[in-house]
Write a structure and sequence with these properties.
Low-confidence stretches: none
Bound molecules: adenosine-5'-triphosphate
Organism: Pigmentiphaga litoralis
CATH topology: Rossmann fold
Strand content: 25-35%
Protein name: Branched-chain amino acid transport system ATP-binding protein
GO molecular function, one term: ATP binding
Family: Belongs to the ABC transporter superfamily.
CATH superfamily: P-loop containing nucleotide triphosphate hydrolases
Keywords: Amino-acid transport, ATP-binding, Cell membrane, Membrane, Nucleotide-binding, Transport
Length: about 230
């Protein structure tokens, strides 16, 4: 069994007025690729945000390599090696593509050259400003910027949402390559369940703040009945 990188231990968490996650436990191992699935509003983004300290914890613990994350201020969590690509993308509009990338560079395994191999469009747009990019290019830049942190864990929150099919294909190729490195753990939140299951080894399905399925992605992909029951997709 590989080492536990991240553990949710019976957590309850949410926002000021609402508790969304209820007594949820999940262990994520080093090098694992995990699809986090579920219908709209079941708490997927809330779970990801809880890793980064952006929710209110009401019980339980989140542990990073066995140590309680509550002891690490939210703004220091990226420094542990956690790359977060939120749905909002948070591109700096008045910085160039290259400058956006250099804001997070830590001199690790993900160099600009390696980023350019993964996303040739990023190289082509190197001198464009953040606000001169298409939605797909912004998404690539947001992922590339998280990689420049040299993360041990990469959190991708609906990276394919609203993008043209040609861009989706490019991102799927890039995510496949990222998952294949084996030294980075990837958690992929996705509405496109079939795509996410094809990209990952393990799948977790949530419903109303709880985990209702944990198993192999390939097995779930082949089981239309189970997919229909869990997510409404056969
Ligand atoms: N900042 C917030 N304050 C209060 N409630 C919130 C906040 N963000 C989300 N919620 C609520 O928490 C619940 C879970 O939302 P969340 O975004 O985690 O779901 P999700 O599974 O990621 O859904 P989606 O696929 O639509 O993004 C929803 O009922 C949502 O309305």
């Amino acid at each position: 069994m590989s080492t536990a990188l991240l553990e949710f231990d019976r957590i309850s968490a949410g926002y000021d007025r609402a508790t969304i996650l209820e007594n949820l436990s999940l262990t994520v191992h080093e090098g694992e690729s995990l699809a986090l699935l579920g219908r709209n509003g079941v708490g997927k983004t809330t779970l990801i945000s809880t890793i980064m300290g952006a929710t209110v914890m009401r019980g339980g613990a989140v542990r990073w390599r066995g140590a309680d994350l509550a002891r690490v201020a939210p703004h220091r969590r990226a420094g542990l090696g956690i790359g977060w690509v939120a749905q909002e993308r948070w591109i700096f509009p008045s910085l160039t593509v290259k400058e956006n990338l250099l804001t997070t560079a830590r001199g690790g395994a993900w160099t600009l050259d390696r980023i350019h191999q993964l996303f040739p469009r990023i190289k082509e747009r190197e001198h464009n400003l953040g606000n001169q990019l298409s939605g797909g290019e912004q998404q690539m830049l947001a992922i590339a910027r998280a990689l420049m942190l040299d993360p041990k864990l990469l959190l991708l929150d609906e990276p394919l949402e609203g993008l043209a099919p040609v861009i989706v294909d490019e991102l799927v190729s890039a995510i496949t390559a990222m998952c294949a490195t084996g030294d980075m753990t990837v958690i992929l939140v996705e509405q496109h369940a079939h795509v996410a299951l094809g990209l990952t080894k393990k799948a977790v399905v949530m419903d109303r703040g709880r985990i209702v399925f944990e198993g192999d992605s390939a097995g779930l992909l082949d089981d239309d009945g189970q997919l229909e029951r869990l997510i409404g997709l056969g």
